């Protein structure tokens, strides 16, 4: 049996033998079957709760708000990676939100944790196998667009796959057509209809703070950027920079999920050599996430309600 190198294999006693993209369809079917044996319904919407949105178990977080919760820690799930980021709970939380059954990833996997990109994105394929059709990916990001302030929210209308420019992509390796095509298009990675609706919801619900749209990029991390790097990203048309999401979106689109994603701007990037005082930190990221999670929770609830009423069974 094929297993995933570096994964939590303790339950099947397998040895790690596979290298790049060695996590086969059959292996992930076993992972999916384990999860299915523990949940009462198929989730149609998957939500990735990043550092800006209750990746940790804060009171008032989105994951905590689900009804009739079933919680499965990552370390219990065969073949799943484990979370190593400070504050990330590292669990799947299933339950009802806006009257439908959803799954939240509370904490995600990053390249800087030492996982290859395909492994960081592997939970997306597991979500697909258990029924997820819509992915809502959230993250914390630094604001490069000079209009952005801490606490702003940016709907991701597009991304620049910087790591892909360097030849690093979660879809590298043998392609299994059961997931999707060898050469997937990415010109409509982020669903324009959902972006439009999300903007309407923000207005109609009078959600607190400012909503923008813009271009996101993911760098490998774990360090925050130098001034020169940030200036370069700005020149390239990047509005917000983070350390996640792009590999998840590539994997989700490859297997034909519909994607909406947004960034919580947790810090304004320091683009000025004269600024000797401002230093980005993970503590600041988590603090801003905590302050904004009430608003973001409402935002996601309403987006899920929209999907449930207007988009499910109409794909
Ligand atoms: O998981 P996300 O992308 O939301 O978290 C960002 C990137 C790093 O993991 C962390 C830095 O503070 O925030
Ligand atoms: N790369 C990067 N990731 C972040 N996550 C939250 N803020 C930042 C940032 O400024 N840069």
Describe the structure.
This protein starts with 24 loop residues before the first helix and ends in a 5-residue tail after the last helix. The chain contains nine helices and nine strands. It has a single domain, classed as Nucleoside phosphorylase domain (Rossmann fold), CATH 3.40.50.1580. It is α/β, with parallel strands linked by helices and 315 residues long. Residues 140-142, 219, 221, 224-225, 241-243, 266-267, 269, 280, 285 line the site of guanine (GUN).
Q: What fraction, in percent, of the residue positions are helical?
A: 25-40%
Count of the domains:
1
Strand order of the largest sheet: 5-8-7-6-9
CATH A-level architecture: 3-Layer(aba) Sandwich
Keywords:
315 residues; alpha/beta; Rossmann fold; 9 strands; globular; binds the ligand O=P(O)(O)O[C@@H]1C[C@H](O)[C@@H](CO)O1
Can you describe this structure in just a few lines?
This protein is of the alpha/beta class.
List the helices and strands and how they pair.
Layout: H1 25-36, E1 45-49, H2 62-65, E2 67-73, E3 91-97, E4 100-106, H3 117-120, H4 122-129, E5 134-143, E6 153-160, H5 162-165, H6 192-204, E7 211-218, H7 227-236, E8 240-242, H8 246-254, E9 258-268, H9 282-310
The chain binds ligand LQZ7MJT6 and guanine (GUN).
Protein name: Methylthioadenosine/purine nucleoside phosphorylase
